């Protein structure tokens, strides 16, 4: 079925529908990964977004049971140059189109994704709508200008009820702002006893669990829309070790007095170089964020910058100068992507043990 993507900025891209025949609207962003589309589709951080894949062929290794990052996909839609209908992989259980049909998702193929990416790089992330080919462009553009996208993405994707992933090691509370299963896998791989709690859990409720550490997960949207998180972090600082990833990193920054801003077109993909300032060592990282912590604002806080992005020199990590707390903007659990930064989970384990030894 013929479809078209209309951007709020006025550009129109024509293509063919795959998955469910739905008209969808969301923030249009691009991802530079060559693989990892299954993890991307199931990553809660893409809640409300229509993702353009810059790599031209998507779906060539199908969908399998092992590579999900959440139970329910939160992505709004997918834009590809070519969707593969006949995947070839020994783990494949269904095609991308079959998966989209089963999960009631919609996508558009046949789009000039390289041109679309250039538009997004020039204009920044913009609202877009995938509609039938005969819909009036001007009416859609005018309608989008009067539409305000949702700002409660974290509430949508966070768990409503606390649950446990038992282990016999250190007890970790994972605050779920839209957590990827990859984070849980890395913690359980290290035998942590993990309690996953909702995004609105208070510091008092966390301390009642008596954990050895707290992990603040990734998640979608603007960190300033996550109400209550900064107070919770402020109430925990110094009382328990904290490790933040992506949105969790931004929330720690806000809690410590820094500010955040929206990037023009964000960092999304599995090939982003990040410099560890102290080690003078570069890691290739997996990233998915549209906001960043302002580096100038860090100068008036107790946070010390530890990592920077080599593509645009934005902040990618910091640690607290006084309390046991550090965070990174990228994804050390990858899923998908390189595992260069996986050691950060081990540093979190070490930090928890050191804190236990000091406080015993």
From TrEMBL:
Residues at the catalytic site: 246, 331, 333
Residues annotated as domain Carbamoyl-phosphate synthase small subunit N-terminal: 1-131
Binding site for L-glutamine: 45, 219, 221, 247, 250, 288, 290-291
GO process annotations (BP): 'de novo' pyrimidine nucleobase biosynthetic process; 'de novo' UMP biosynthetic process; glutamine metabolic process; L-arginine biosynthetic process
Catalytic activity from the UniProt record: hydrogencarbonate + L-glutamine + 2 ATP + H2O = carbamoyl phosphate + L-glutamate + 2 ADP + phosphate + 2 H(+); L-glutamine + H2O = L-glutamate + NH4(+)
UniProt keyword list: Amino-acid biosynthesis, Arginine biosynthesis, ATP-binding, Glutamine amidotransferase, Ligase, Nucleotide-binding, Pyrimidine biosynthesis
Pathway where this protein functions: Amino-acid biosynthesis; L-arginine biosynthesis; carbamoyl phosphate from bicarbonate: step 1/1; Pyrimidine metabolism; UMP biosynthesis via de novo pathway; (S)-dihydroorotate from bicarbonate: step 1/3
Keyword Transmembrane helix applies: no
GO molecular function term, any single one: ATP binding
Matching InterPro entries: Anth_synth/Amidotransfase, CarbamoylP_synth_ssu, CarbamoylP_synth_ssu_N, CarbP_synth_ssu_N_sf, Class_I_gatase-like, CPSase_GATase1, GATASE
Region annotated CPSase, chain positions: 1-170
Regions annotated as coiled coil: none
Methyltransferase as UniProt keyword: no
Enzyme Commission number(s) of this protein: 6.3.5.5
Xref: NCBIfam families: CPSaseIIsmall (TIGR01368), PRK12838.1 (NF009475)
Function in brief: Small subunit of the glutamine-dependent carbamoyl phosphate synthetase (CPSase). CPSase catalyzes the formation of carbamoyl phosphate from the ammonia moiety of glutamine, carbonate, and phosphate donated by ATP, constituting the first step of 2 biosynthetic pathways, one leading to arginine and/or urea and the other to pyrimidine nucleotides. The small subunit (glutamine amidotransferase) binds and cleaves glutamine to supply the large subunit with the substrate ammonia.
Complex formation: Composed of two chains; the small (or glutamine) chain promotes the hydrolysis of glutamine to ammonia, which is used by the large (or ammonia) chain to synthesize carbamoyl phosphate. Tetramer of heterodimers (alpha,beta)4.
Family per record: Belongs to the CarA family.
Protein known as: Carbamoyl phosphate synthase small chain
